[in-house]
Amino acid sequence: MDIFDKVAKRMGPIGQHQKWSHGYFSFPKLEGEIAPHMNFRGKKLLVWSLNNYLGLANHPEVRKADEQGAADFGMAYPMGARMMSGNSKYHEQLEQELAEFVGKPDAFLLNFGYQGMVSIIDALVDRNDVVVYDGESHACIVDGLRLHMGKRFVYKHNNIDDCRKQLERATKLAETTGGGILVITEGVFGMSGAQGKLKEIIDLKKEFTFRLLIDDAHGFGTMGPTGAGTHEAQNCIDGVDVYFATFAKSMAGIGAFVASTEEMTNYLRYNMRSQTFAKALPMPMVIGLLKRLELLKNSPELREKLWKVARTLQQGLKERGFDIGVTDTVVTPVFLKGELLEATALTMDLRENYGIFCSIVVYPVIPKGMIELRLIPTAVHTMEDVQITLDAFSEVSEKLKNGYYAEAKIPTT
Known about the structure:
The chain is 41% helix and 15% strand. It is of the alpha/beta class.
C-alpha cells in the first residue's frame, strides 16, 4: 500500500473530523492581546483555554524583559546546541535559580516540554530497566515509554494498591535483568486536576527500591506555599528524585527544565539526545524567563488571585450541581453526559450566543457518552468573568438535559 493512500483512509481519531472541525474546534485562531477576553472570528469572547495561570503573558515587566532581550541579543543568539556553541551565563543562571526554587541541587534547561520528557525517559532507562507509571499519564510520558526497549507496567490511576502490585512485578523482573526501576507520575493531572499521590508513592520506597520521576507541568508555579510545585504542596521535595516542569503554563513561555542531584543532572546534560542535537533556547526567551521566575517567586499575590478565581469558579459550579470530578488544583473540568453531536452544538452555543470560549474534550480522550468542558482559571480573570460563566453553564446544561442539542443540525462528515 502507498503510504499516502493509507493516510487518506486513516486520518486518526481526531483527524477524521478535520474537514468540518478545522478552524473552529481544532486549530482555532484567538486574536488580540493575550487576555481573558480575546477575538474569535470577529467576536470578543471570554476565554478559559489559555495556559497563562499567573497572567504573566502580558505582564508589563515580562513584556519589557522580552523586548529588551530581543533588542540586546536578537532572536538567533546563541547559535548552536548548548554542548557545542550555544551556552551562555544567562542559561546557567536560569538553571541555578530554578534548581534552588524547586529544592534540587541542579537543573538543566530543555527546549520543549513534550520533547523534553520523551528524551528524559529515553536517557534514564535502558532495556534492562523497568518502568512503572500511572495509567493517566500525559502523552509525552506515553511517547517516551514507546522508545523504552525494556518492560513497563501501568498502574490504575492514583491507585496505590495497584502501584504496589506493579512494583512487585517490576522488582521480580528487575532481579532477572539486573536493571533498576523508575516510577513515573504527574504532580497535577492536566485533564482532571487531580494531584498525583506523591507522598504515598514515596512511602513505597520502604518496601521497594526505585526512583521517582514526576511531570509537574501544571503544578509548577501554582502549587505549594511558594509555588515551587506539587512536591512542595505535599511536603515531599526530597522524595522526588527527578523533577520536571515546563515553562508553557505558569511561566507563559516556551521550554522546560529537569532538576535532580548534580550527578543525575550532569548525566542528563550530556546524554539527552534532544538537547545534544538541537539549538539552545533563544536568548530573548531565557532573559524573559528570568523575569518570569522573579515574578513567580516575589509576587505571591498573583498566585493568591489565581486560587481565588479558581475556588470561586469551582465552588459555584458545585453549588449549581455540576460534576467537576476530583480536582483539588486550579484545573477545572466540567463533566456532562452527551454524544459528539451534542458536545459540538453545546460548544458552538457557548461561543456564538454566550460569548464563552473553553476547550471541549470528547472520545477518545474520555469515555464515549461523556463531554468534558475544561476551564483554565488565571490570575487575570475577574469575579465578573466567573459569574458570567456560571450563569451560561447553568443555561446550556438545562438545554443539554432537555435534548436541545440532540436536535442540532451540524455536519460531522
